[in-house]
């Protein structure tokens, strides 16, 4: 062997050690900057009360809005570091809240209730009832917490009012927007009723249809017409004024199965079980139908054979209010089999369903047990909850007919904070989680403050969801009408993606008793980004949806019967079509299809072109 060869051989161990150390160092640098070193994670732990993403952001992984599978592009799969899936264990999602600075005291009263007092002079007295009996110092048998809004439902589609626990998803998928036009592709006739001193045609507030893409397995065991059972189906499920629940093929508008007759009007929005189980839930808006009267009920249907399997009365004996309607759209916590619902009787219901579903046998059953939350607010004696609750982890947000806004720990059944909203608040609260914290957007109407010929301010607010502190407020003067309220009844669009800096509100009767205003406000400051005068007021909630090109578009319907396709960056119309009559109901969108019911006594299927 030559001396040159011996020199090379003697350097091999040193070269090997050098490159091994270099590889280890580069690996450590990569893990450190990606936040995956164990010592780094423990050293930089966060406090959930101060960081809004203490649990969720670290584990958040979701399916994209277009339904495609998340992951690396072709050829990069092995190089991609996948984030772990979000936990389905509620204990991992809990937020440990502290008493807000606004709280003065909490005390237990002699009847088993508790009372909290706040610095603004407000007081709330509350009861927890199990089997209709007050439980002092209630301890939950298990914990409930919702995860990120993208993980609310296992189903593709819009399965509840505004689609998720933040109430920010009135659309699903992506639309191929080329022509920026709207086209009516089908209609389906529905009826009308007379009741409670009025005439109720078509579909009303909030009246959003459900758009459900069933799994093959579940579709096969349901009583769907043979024509649609054999192919992929997105089903429209729509309870309306005439007392029927309609089931339609979203693409054609043809009945996918027989309609169900409830017998009484539904004004609110139903809910399909987010686990993909064949269960449908709905409240009741009126207890009179063309001279026939009956009891208020909340109903749960088995959709295998469209049979009612459970109901509970709206005229609840433990409620402080006897009016038993239910316009609120309930949500179901799929991790714990728990239904949470609000009633116009003023109660919050937490129901462990004890669901048993056997897809192979084609059977489903429930055996609910109830816990109820009852309260009295010093802000107003008015009872009744008509908006739909929103949820951040184990915290629930809702407002009532008297204007009391509440943050409720759904496990302890205890209010965390309350806020004086100033008037009836039917618009559903929306939530947003950001790097700066968790916030809610809410607005009231002109109802309790009004008298004929008068005006009052509709108050739009951004509030810190964890503390109840006001971030900003924007006021809009509105006319009062006793039978058609001014102000905000629609649920806002909380901007995402390319419009993530704005929130869009639809305000009724801002000039006269027939017009309105559509306004985009800066999320951070509340300043107006743009404002548009509406010739016709609207109670219908604006709907944002995403195009395949990544641009956000918006639909808005009004009382004149027009559906507008709007650019949400400017507020300008891109197209407008007539859907026959007043639209109080809110549309839902699935890819390129929008569906809505109107006073024209029709359900419309509209293609976004």
UniProtKB/TrEMBL annotation:
Residues 54-63 have a biased composition (Polar residues). Residues 54-93 are annotated as: Disordered. Keywords: Membrane, Transmembrane, Transmembrane helix. Residues 459-553 form the Pyrrolo-quinoline quinone repeat domain. The chain crosses the membrane at residues 12-33. This is PQQ enzyme repeat-containing protein. The lineage of its organism: Bacteria, Bacillati, Bacillota, Clostridia, Eubacteriales.
